[in-house]
Amino acid sequence: METYLSLVVKRSYPDLIIYAGEVTLGEKVRNKKDSKKRKLEKTRITQAACALLNSGGGVIVIQMANQSEQPERMGQDLETSLRNLIPSLDLQAFFETKQQEDKFYIFVKSWSSSPEDDSTKPRICSLGTSLYCRSLTSKVAMDSRDAFYFLKKKKAYIKCSPTDDRAPPAKIPRTMSQKSLESNPAFEIFQSKKLEYGQRLLFSESTSIEFKQFDTENAQKYMKDIIPEYISAFANTQGGYLFIGVDDKSIILGCPKDNVDPDSLKIVANEAISKLPVFHFCSSKDKNKVSYETRVIDVFQEGNLYSYLCVIKVEPFCCAVFSEAPISWMVDKEKGVYTLNTEEWVRMMVDVGPEAASNDLSRDFECQLSLSDSPPHCRPVYSKKGLEHKVDLQQHLFQVSPDCLKYTPESLWSELCSQHERLEDLVNQQIRSFSCGLLILSRSWAVDLNLEEKQEVICDALLIAQNSPPILYTILGEQDEQGQDYCTRTAFTLKQKLVNTGGYTGRVCVMTKVLCLSSQNNIETSGSSVSPIDYPSSYNLANIQEMQDLLQALVIVLLNFRSFLSDQLGCEILNLLTAQQYEILSKSLRKTRELFVHGLPGSGKTIIAMKIMEKIRNTFHCETDRILYICENQPLRDFIQ
Ligand SMILES: [Zn+2]
């Protein structure tokens, strides 16, 4: 894993913020710039944008190097590199820019394979796939979509083949290909001991044959450069022969013997090929590499050794061969920006969930969130048929009505107001300018999101209102320096979960605000910025539909649990609690010290118990081994552990 020191991830925001350092902006100024520096800047922006697309979205902050300029645009090269990352030509679909004083902001929305047509699309954004194939007489770089279909086909093929360990499916195509490579006219030349300079070969380039001439100045470097892509192309198609030292009219030239020694050519080829990353879907236990053979053949002119011809015979590969690791990034508040390795990349690319795999699932379960139109980190969500759909759950728990701002749950609100005299005035002051939406109260939004509680917090209130971004208010009794930290961390986690668990694909950032009951200053400071970055108005919830979409994502965030079916299906899927289960879970642990839950087998008592234990841990800050769980059988005990 390689991390990028030049890209700094800032921690003090409720969103993923990447500082990309100083960059020159504006078409004219950029053109005047040294091309090397320009390229470095472009690389930084591309990496940051790709990482944010793959990690739920966020903001790139650029320090403008040319402060006197007022660029309306970033510059053609930067725009093109951003456009190359996304599936549509419309930059606005994923990026929005804004200049504020000497800072330039690029707001990045999460990647999602938009469901505008039915075909499934790659689940992550990549700058390059490093996968090649042969098409007629050329080597072609696969783009993300080609690679997605190629990998899916390979995966499906391996799945269909008999899975007998003694005869791995990989062997079947290999023996067949052996024959076809040997019946290829190139095979005879491949086996020759010597050849004649200027001789014309009796075959030309084809899907399985490629001619390259030596760059005789630096033969070894040239080989090292061309081999990865050609070997990947042949191995991913039907195999073939790479001739180095033949011109495109099939004439043998070779590399003059004075420029190179034949053994080193072989070594260079072997080294280059052994480095190629491979990925197996099959059960190839020894993690087989590409199988190939390199020959260096003497070429004579008028009876004297004149040059060398290098031929590499490449067998078709069972799975996928890359020219180098695929080019894609992710970002994490802890790890910073990092590259995906080949294994992670393929797993994310071909992750299509269990839809295709299991008929039983679609018979008994209803899909609530499918992978085909959700952000990269999402897991599919199913609920048992007959149970409430996420839309019903949202209507039940978080209903929004036009021209009405509601506080929910009402019982909690009246309880809090009766306990804290000034609370009602303080909160009403804050939200009186909003007319439509919901204020969702909780004793601790942190605990609801599986974070640790902060004791000084009286309550947290999440505002989902029209013409506003979501706002998280943390209400404290006394001023507290850590209050803002707590609020930011909670809002950050909420945003991440709305996108990466709840599958929300719109633009979103949860703003933060700390209020204090004892202080008189709240009202005056209410004008101060909720976030130091001024987000564009597209981050506001524009209408009821958008609010409902966000609230349905919130339902998944709050009610999801890992399905027992996950292990059986070999792929993680989530289920949802019912509204009744969620109500049990929402009871205050400080007030409700005893709780009897009666239910038939399979009605979800264990899940509730697990969720409550999680809550105990976060509310009372205790270690796992201080919680006692008693049950009647061993499998259940092992499962909980
Ligand atoms: Zn394989």
TrEMBL record:
**Can you tell me where the transmembrane regions are?**
none
| UniProt key word Nuclease | yes
UniProt keywords (A-Z) are: Endonuclease, Hydrolase, Nuclease
Query: What are the Poxin-Schlafen/Schlafen-like N-terminal domain coordinates in residue numbering?
Result: 82-202
Q: Pfam families annotated for this entry?
A: B3R (PF17057), SLFN_AlbA_2 (PF04326), SLFN_GTPase-like (PF21026)
Q: Does the keyword Hydrolase apply?
A: yes
Q: Which residues form the signal peptide?
A: none
The record ties this protein, via InterPro entries, to: P-loop_NTPase (IPR027417), Poxin-SLFN/SLFN_N (IPR031450), Schlafen (IPR029684), Schlafen_AlbA_2_dom (IPR007421), Schlafen_AlbA_2_dom_sf (IPR038461), SLFN_GTPase-like (IPR048729)
Where would I find the Schlafen AlbA-2 domain in this sequence? 205-321
Look up the record and name the cofactor or cofactors this protein needs: Mg(2+)
> Please, which domain of life does this record's source organism belong to?
Eukaryota
The chain positions of domain Schlafen GTPase-like read 404-541
**One function term, GO molecular function aspect:** hydrolase activity
> What protein am I looking at?
Schlafen family member 9 isoform 2
